[in-house]
Specification:
Radius of gyration: 15 Å
Number of helices: 3
Helix content: 25-40%
Length: 100
């Protein structure tokens, strides 16, 4: 079934923001934690601001955001299943890739 322009307008834009965060102000490269943030928003500027607010609320002292993109549908990787749904529900989902 083909999707018309009206259907596309009804779907929220899900952004993915990729970067690194630190739990302290030092920001030593070896202490960086890779993060992916999934969220909806009207534009990239709003998405970046919401991502930074969520990272701060999660206790990260520093953040470097490298890329922002738009997801063209639900990701195939199960790592993102809950985060994608959270984003569609209007929440900001932070996935931190901590190495132990």
């Amino acid at each position: 079934m083909a999707m018309n322009d009206n259907d596309a307008a009804d779907e929220p834009i899900v952004f993915i923001v990729v970067g690194r965060v630190w739990e302290d102000q030092e920001g030593a490269s070896q202490d960086a934690i890779a993060v992916h943030v999934l969220l909806t928003g009207p534009d990239e500027e709003t998405a970046i601001q919401r991502a930074l607010e969520a990272l701060s609320a999660n206790g990260y002292a520093l953040a470097e955001l490298d890329q922002i993109g738009v997801l063209a549908g639900e990701p195939d990787d199960e790592t993102y299943d809950d985060a994608y749904q959270d984003a569609l529900d209007g929440n900001v989902a932070v996935i931190a890739f901590k190495s132990e």
